[in-house]
Q: What sequence folds into this?
């Protein structure tokens, strides 16, 4: 998974 | 989570609380663009769909719920509770000029071609320009209540804080999110004019007035 598989920033 | 992002998020939170406070205490939404507020609801709803299938943290969860619910609440205040104080005749920015290009950009630039990822990109692009109807309204009327300018300053500071956050994350985690970074820089740049007047006038105790 790439770092932006999910978005942790708002 | 680093301090820059925390300051950014807190300043975003503060901006919303300032706006609600302004509307509640003055019992008026004069000077606030309904279109900008409606765009924020669109931004939050299309970005935070991952609430239903992805768990990041308790902090992340509550912030997302807060942003969606508070932005809807602001629309309610403007359209129902204090409706007579909302003047659509000065809120004339054509938002289709923002929605269309953002939709096209999202179809071109995204990390994965799925409904939620394209909506995520759309929300990032839309957020970067969502303040334009508000700034346009300010430009048209040439003045703003001081509390409204505090709202805008906090909102501008939010994305400004995200920029050092991205630099920090690049150094410490080797992470770069080109879509968020590009839009974030555009979004912050849109506030530069406003910040100039805010720092040179409002923070010196004068009224926010644009030169004629």
A:
């Amino acid at each position: 998974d790439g770092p932006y598989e999910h978005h942790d920033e708002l | 989570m680093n301090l820059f992002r925390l300051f950014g998020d807190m300043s975003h939170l503060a901006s919303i609380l300032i706006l609600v406070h302004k509307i509640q205490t003055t019992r008026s939404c004069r000077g606030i663009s309904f279109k900008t507020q409606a765009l924020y609801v669109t931004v939050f709803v299309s970005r935070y769909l991952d609430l239903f299938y992805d768990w990041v943290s308790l902090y992340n969860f509550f912030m997302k719920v807060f942003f969606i619910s508070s932005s809807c609440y602001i629309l309610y205040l403007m359209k129902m509770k204090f409706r007579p104080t909302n003047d659509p005749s000065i809120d004339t920015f054509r938002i289709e000029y923002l929605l269309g290009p953002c939709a096209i950009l999202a179809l071109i630039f995204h990390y994965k071609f799925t409904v939620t990822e394209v909506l995520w990109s759309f929300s990032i692009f839309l957020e970067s320009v969502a303040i334009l109807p508000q700034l346009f309204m300010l430009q048209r009327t040439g003045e703003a209540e001081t509390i409204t300018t505090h709202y805008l300053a906090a909102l501008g500071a939010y994305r400004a804080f995200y920029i050092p956050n991205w630099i920090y994350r690049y150094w410490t985690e080797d992470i770069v999110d080109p879509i968020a970074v590009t839009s974030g820089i555009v979004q912050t740049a849109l506030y530069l004019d406003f910040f100039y007047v805010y720092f040179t006038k409002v923070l010196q105790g004068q009224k926010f007035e644009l030169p004629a």
Remarks:
- Chain B touches chain A at residues 5, 9, 12, 47, 50, 54, 56-57, 60, 63-64, 67, 111, 120, 162, 165, 173, 175, 177, 180 (CB under 8 Å).
